[in-house]
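Limitations
The structure tokens in this dataset are predictions for the assembled complex, not deposited experimental models. Users should treat interface geometry with appropriate caution, especially where small molecules or nucleic acid strands are included. An illustrative entry is reproduced here so readers can see what is and is not provided.
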Amino acid sequence: GAGVSQSPSNKVTEKGKDVELRCDPISGHTALYWYRQRLGQGLEFLIYFQGNSAPDKSGLPSDRFSAERTGESVSTLTIQRTQQEDSAVYLCASSPRSGAGGNQPQHFGDGTRLSIL
Amino acid sequence: DAKTTQPNSMESNEEEPVHLPCNHSTISGTDYIHWYRQLPSQGPEYVIHGLTSNVNNRMASLAIAEDRKSSTLILHRATLRDAAVYYCILRGPNAGGTSYGKLTFGQGTILTVHP
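Predicted assembly:
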């Protein structure tokens, strides 16, 4: 079946521009996560959506970063006034639910490679 | 989140078993032990998880120490496709204990498989 889909797969932009990254989760998955992975590093959590609950934004590095999700569908991560340190692979994951009894695995997309010139 | 400690790298030969260790001495009673792996230029892939008992699935086995302060991911017969970075992650409940959210990734273990 279809997995988590992210677009674009690669994005090159100039410093100071805004970028928007898209994530299509697996159908029916209520939980959606965004992570960032800098070159040679592990993943850093950014934000987590669970159903209609308020998102957990605790990982967003600055107010230039924001994310939206409509219902249980597509999510977009927006980075305003990009800086060179924003260069990284941005990964999205989804899971069926994240209840205490569930502890469901996360299914990842292959990410968007963002390069800031 | 409680932290895990893994070797930076390990090597194996094809078709031999691989034992990937993970130390997590500060694990709490509600923390699950998760393993993910990441192949080059791909997103992480779930491998296995457990709480207290050993677990087996089609990909691997997870052996958890009796005191839960360490665990070992076992690949029974390594293949070239198993070459990846393996992450051992403790996943605990959010404040309020009603849900399990983010994964906290460390540096992982780079596994090299030789033909």
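Some entries come with short summary sentences. For this one: The mean pLDDT of chain A is 91.
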